[in-house]
Amino acid sequence: MSSVAPPSHLGHEFARVQSHARPRPDAKDPDRVRRFTASQINRAIDLQTDRSITRYAALSEQLIVERIRGLDQEWDVERVLELQAGALGLMGLFLARQQDPKWLMLPGLVFLFLMQHATQGWCPPVPVLRRLGVRTRSEIDREKYSLLHLLETGVSGG
After folding, report:
1. How open is the CA angle 52-58-64, to the nearest 5 degrees?
2. pLDDT for 71-87, tens place per residue?
3. Has this prediction a pTM greater than 0.90?
4. Backbone torsion region of residue 2, taken as left when φ is above 0, otherwise alpha when ψ lies between -120 and 50, otherwise beta
5. 87/29 Cα distance (integer angstroms)
6. Cβ-proximal residues to 54 (8 Å cutoff; 6+ apart), any chain
7. Cα 66 from Cα 69, distance rounded (Å)
8. Which end of the chain is more exposed for a tag (fewer CB within 10 A), N or C?
9. What does the alpha-carbon distance between residue 85 and residue 106 come to, in Å, rounded to a whole number?
10. At a CB cut-off of 8 Å and minimum separation 6, what does 21 contact?
11. Helix, strand, coil % (nearest 5) of the chain?
């Protein structure tokens, strides 16, 4: 994948915002989901975020504000996991009631995964969600605050 260069009128300001905002995935990364995500997936998500920032930086302030509102509504990994866990837990309870009590193993497994995620920042669904491009709250916030910074400094292209 090729990198998207910032519009020429953004100059050094865009690079400064990017260098301060980008999460660094490594063993000391405080973002547990990023720490347990393959580096190539983190890079792909970061690249997509960089492209979005670059694209919106060249647009009007109104479009940037609309994007920020969209980012406030974007679901992060935690929220998607919570929804999946709730749905699978209810499904297991329903199937145990209607079919066979052995289905109670499903909510039990889901709860174990939730506990694993709470303590380690990883559970089996996380790699799948990350490959699908579901971002962490810090990744979403990096884009949001980079765009807010561009609005505050008047660097947007529109």
Report:
1. 65
2. 999 999 999 999 999 99
3. no
4. beta
5. 31
6. 4, 5, 6, 7, 14
7. 5
8. N
9. 10
10. 142, 145, 146
11. 75, 0, 25
